[in-house]
Amino acid sequence: MADRRNGAQSPEEQVRALYEEAESNTAKAFEALVNKPSFGRLLALSAENTAALTRMSFDAVDLLWRNLRLAGRADIVRLSKQLHRTEDKLERVLQEVEKLRDEVARDREGATS
Amino acid sequence: MSVVDPLVSAVDRVVRFPANALEYSNILLTTNDAVVGATPREVVWTHRNTTLYRYRSSDRRHAVPILLVFALINRPEIFDLRPGSSLVEYLIDEGFDVFLVDWGYPDEEDDDMGLDDYVCDELDWAVRETLRASGAEELSLMGWCIGATLCAMYCGLDRGGDRGERAGRVPVKNLVLLTMPIDGRGGTYANWVADEDFDVDGVSELWGSIPGGAIDFANKMMKPVTNFWTTYRRLWEGVQTGTAKREAYQSMAKWVADNPPFAGRAWREWIRLMYRDASLLRGRVRLRDRLVDLGRIDQNVLVITAGADHIAPRPGTMPFFDLISSDDVEHFDRPGGHIGLVAGSAARKELWPGIAEWLAKRSDG
C-alpha cells in the first residue's frame, strides 16, 4: 500500500504501461512505413488492379444482361445522365423565371411609389 | 497492497468477461442505429444530388445566415453529430439562421462532375437559394476540409471587375475555414498520389466515381494501428472499466463508416491541384475559363487549424494568409485532429463559443 502511495506501479500496471508503449511504437513504425513512396506505389497498383477488375466484372455482367434483353447498369447510367441534363436545363430556366419575377416585382414597386 | 489483490482483480475480470464481451459486441453491432443528424430541418432546394437544408432558429438574433459546406468525402452530418454535441444545434441556440449544403451520394452518372460543377453551379446556386430563403443580402460561408477549399475557390473566382471592386463580388460577408488544405504537398497523401506512376486518369476512368470505401480505407491507412486496432482496444478497456461512452462512440463510428463516392473528374482534379502542382497556391486554377485567384478574397476571414491534423496539416494551410487581401483576418490554432477539433467532446467548450462570438460580431445587418 505504501509503495502505491509513493507512486510505484503494481505489476499489472507495469504490464499495461509496457503494452501501451509497444503499441505506440508499433503505430509510429507503421505510420513511417505507409509514408514511404514504395508503399504509395504498392497502394497505387492495388487501386488500379481493383478498379480494373471491378470494371471488367461490371462489363461482363452488363453484357450478359443486355443479351437477355434486360436494362443493364450502362443503360441506367445513360438514362440518369439524360435526366441530369434535363434537370440542369430546368434549373437554369427556373432561375431565369425567378429573376424576371423579381424584376417585375421591383418595377411594380417603383411604379406605385 | 496485499498479495491476494491481483488475484481477486483477475478473478473479478474473468467473472465479468461474458457481460463485458456482450456489451462490447452490442456497441459494435448496434452502431448503425445511432442517432446522427437529429436536429429538425427542412429541404429548401435540390439539384441533382445536392440538397440545401435549413435549420430554423426560434430565437433568431443575427441578420446574416450561415451556410455550412462539408467535404466531398464523408457526410455533412458531422456538423450535427448528435443531440448535445452538434455545432448546428449550438449555432441555432446562439441565434443564427443555419443552412447546410449536402452533396449527396454521387453515382456512375456523376462521373463527369468536376470541381467547376461544384463551385460554379452547386455552391453558387446553394448560396443564391440561401439568400432567397432567408431574405438576407449576404451570408457567412463556413467550410470544412475540402468544403473549406471549395468555399475559398468560390470567393476567389474571377467574376469580372478588378480586385476589391463591388462589381462581380460574391454575396459572402464572412468566410470561416475549418482545417482547410491549400497545399497538400509533403504529406502522406502526396507520397501516395503525387508520383506520376500513379495513373489518376486511369483509376478514375476505370472506377468512374471513386468508391467511398476506397477513400475511407486510404484515410485509415494513414494511421493504420490507431484506426484498425487502438480505437477498438480503447473501447474494450472503456467497457471493462465502465467508462465507455456508447453514444459518443457510436455516432462517430457511424459517421466515419458513411462514405459517399467521390465523383471521378472532381477526384482527379483535386489530386492534381492539391498534391501534384499546388496550382491553387500559384493562382493557376481555372474553372470554366475563369481564374481562381485567392487574392480576390476580401471577406472577413476566420481560419481554424488543428495542431495534430494529419489529413490537412497546418503547414498546408498557412500560405493562404499570404495570398488573401482581407483586412479582417483571424487565426485560431488549437490542439486536436482534423475532425476531433470541431466535432470532439471538447469542441463545445473550447472552439464553438469562439466561432459563434467571431460570427456574431460580424453578422448584424
Protein described:
Chain A has 113 residues and is mainly α. Chain A has helices at residues 2-5, 11-34, 37-67, 73-112. The model of chain A has no long low-confidence stretch (mean pLDDT 86). By secondary structure, chain B is of the alpha/beta class. Chain B has one domain: 3-Layer(aba) Sandwich (Rossmann fold). Chain B has helices at residues 5-29, 87-93, 115-134, 146-156, 188-193, 200-207, 212-221, 224-241, 246-257, 264-276, 319-323, 340-343, 347-350, 352-361, and strands at 42-47, 50-55, 66-69, 98-102, 139-144, 172-178, 286-287, 290-291, 300-306, 329-334. In chain B, the strands form 2 sheets. Chain B has an 8-stranded mixed β-sheet with strand order 1-2-4-3-5-6-9-10, sandwiched between helices. Chain B has a two-stranded antiparallel sheet with strand order 7-8. In chain B, β5 (139-144), α4 and β6 form a beta-alpha-beta unit. In chain B, α3 (115-134) packs across α4. The relative contact order of chain B is 0.16. The model of chain B has no long low-confidence stretch (mean pLDDT 92). Classes of the chains: A mainly alpha (113), B alpha/beta (365). Chain A binds chain B through residues 1, 3-4, 10-12, 23, 26-27, 30-31, 34-37, 39-41, 43-44, 47-48, 50-52, 54-55, 73, 77, 80-81, 84, 87-88, 91, 95, 98, and chain B through 1, 6, 9, 47-48, 107-110, 112, 121, 125, 128, 132, 188, 191-193, 195, 197-199, 202-203, 206-207, 214, 218, 221-226, 229-230, 233.
The Cα radius of gyration of chain A reads 33 Å
Radius of gyration of chain B: 22 Å
Q: What overall geometry of chain B do the principal axes of the alpha carbons give?
A: globular
Task: List unreliable stretches of 5+ residues of chain B.
Answer: none
Helical region count of chain B?
A: 14
CATH top level class name of chain B: Alpha Beta
As for the CATH topology of chain B, it is: Rossmann fold
| Low-pLDDT stretches of chain A | none
Average of the residue pLDDT scores of chain A? 86
Specify the CATH homologous superfamily of chain B. Alpha/Beta hydrolase fold, catalytic domain
Q: Spell the H/E element sequence of chain A.
A: HHHH
Helices and strands of chain B, in N-to-C order? HEEEHEHEHEHHHHHHEEEHEHHH
Oligomer: heterodimer
Ends distance of chain A? 89 Å
> Structural class of the secondary structure composition of chain B?
alpha/beta
Total number of helical segments of chain A? 4
Reading side by side through the largest sheet of chain B, how are the strands ordered? Answer: 1-2-4-3-5-6-9-10
Task: Please state the overall shape of chain A, judged from the principal axes of the Cα atoms.
Answer: flat
Overall pLDDT level of chain B: 92
